[in-house]
Amino acid sequence: MLESYAFVLILGCIYGFFIGLVPVAGATVGLIAIYGFIGYFTDPYMLVVFTTAIVVTSSIGDSFAAVVMNIPGAGSAAATMVDGFPMTRRGESARALSAAISTSWVNGVFWGIAVFFFLPYYTKIVLYFGSIEMFTFLVFAMTCVIFISSKYFIRGALALVAGITVGLIGLNPDDGVYRMMNFIPTIVDGEFAWTKWLYLADGVQMIPVMAGVLAFPELLSAFRMRYETVKIDAHNIKEQLWQGVKDSWKYKWDGARGGFIGAFVGLVPGIGGSIADWFAYSQTVAAPAHKDDEIPVGKGNVRGVIGCEGANNAQKATSYVPTILFGIPGASFEIIIMGLFMYVGLELGTIDVLQDEKFFDVLLSSYLWSLFIILPVAYGFIRYAVYITNIPFAFYFWPILASLVWSSVQYTGMIEDYIVLGVCMIAGLVMKHLKFSRISFLIGFILSARIEASWIQFNTFGYGWQDIVFSPLPCLFAVLSIAALIWGIFYNKARIDFV
After folding, report:
1. Looking at the domain assignment, is residue 163 inside a domain?
2. Closest Cα to residue 116, out of 44, 26, 20, 52?
3. Mind listing the pLDDT tens digit for each residue in 380-391?
């Protein structure tokens, strides 16, 4: 299946692994940066192969910066550095990296097969979703985004509403009326007035929103961040590599628990990424100490690395389920993938994609082949990791920023593209500073049309709350929404505030 895409697969693996090594970049930034090159993907399945390779290999690469530099390659690797970097200080960086790679890889293979091999069969679930089922499922997804993924749930709700509002700017396809486009100040008959900015007729473009709101604030934070580096001790690196593999087997239940947590979190719409790793890490900390523990988890114990790395690739795999079946992103990087696929005619969550057998075959093959390609590369790279990870971030910052800007101004190439990108960058910085959930904003933005359509259908067909209560699936989603709200407010200890 992948013979004709072999070069694209290898290129995606190399690019993904490298972008994973770059502090704070990860799959999300790496995917945004390829928007400007999307015209080179003449075959939509070529893009499927390339993006899947990026997601898989960047997840492996993320661990290097976390362990060696005490700064994550992406937010999802932040928990790894809690125990990984103290091990590096003790001269056990190769052991920590080996344990992280092997645990992440095994869980990636297991959950990848469980998801992608059977994903065509999961599509039958969609047959049970009518208007009311989709409406209540979207309510459940929005509840999870607001109350579970961030500790500031009121600000998360406001960010979600803001995202939906921005997503609805432009021409209404139902009645042909322009809405929320009066941004140009003019003088009409001697009086001041606002006129429509026709640049927004097709809506606010997705790429500058993603680049400005999500990627740019993280790049700027990394540019300003000071980090500590410790060189890898190479004299006993082979022994440490083997010890890391043995640690993964010895503490396999910590890795398996992390994988299960990551897989579960990935299935819940909109909360994947960092929350999965921190939740898995918190459960490792809460677990009874192992009889061989000489150092507690949190002070440089390899179990801390294994526990959170178990969630890494597992969450990446399962987050494809809500994204592909329902068109609701399971994690932040899935938002970018949805946008990329739209550009080549693959709109996730639609019947055309769900019935496309080649799409599922290519997805499964590229995922598994990426895992098998990156494993020897990652192990072979450990002794050389310090030469890449110790390069000052300023050398990465400007090329990545230039790529993001270039990708964001491909719509018209005129000054309007730069204005929108600048506004999105400022908005992203303000939201990050005030701790408004940018993920909530982006999910609201990308799902705005679907949320509006679902709400219209709910009212047009005359559905009421009694239909939710007495219908099995809608009632289940309503109960889950209430449970997510209560757990998110009162019991969730793994919430984060940097997205």
Report:
1. no
2. 52
3. 888 776 666 666
pLDDT tops 60 at residue 113: yes
User: 340 CB contacts (<8 Å, ≥6 apart)?
Assistant: 31, 34, 35, 38, 47, 51
Question: Is 35 a domain residue?
Answer: yes
The C-alpha atoms of residue 307 and residue 284 are separated, in whole angstroms, by 6
Q: Distance between CA atoms of 54 and 26, rounded to whole angstroms? A: 9
Alpha carbons 421 and 477: distance in angstroms, whole number: 37
Q: What is the reported pTM?
A: 0.83
Tell me how many domains the chain contains: 1
pLDDT in tens, 307-358: 888 888 888 888 898 889 888 888 778 888 988 888 888 888 888 888 888 9
Residue 102, domain member (yes or no): yes
Residues 434-454: tens digit of each pLDDT:
988 888 898 889 888 888 888
Structure tokens at 6: 């072999």
Residue 94 structural domain: 3-132+206-413
Token pair of 15, please?
A: 């690019």
Q: What are the b/e assignments for 480-492, b being 16+ CB within 10 Å? A: bbeebbeebeeeb
* CA 49/CA 369 separation, integer angstroms: 10
Burial of 203 (0-12, 13-18, 19+ CB in 10 A): middle
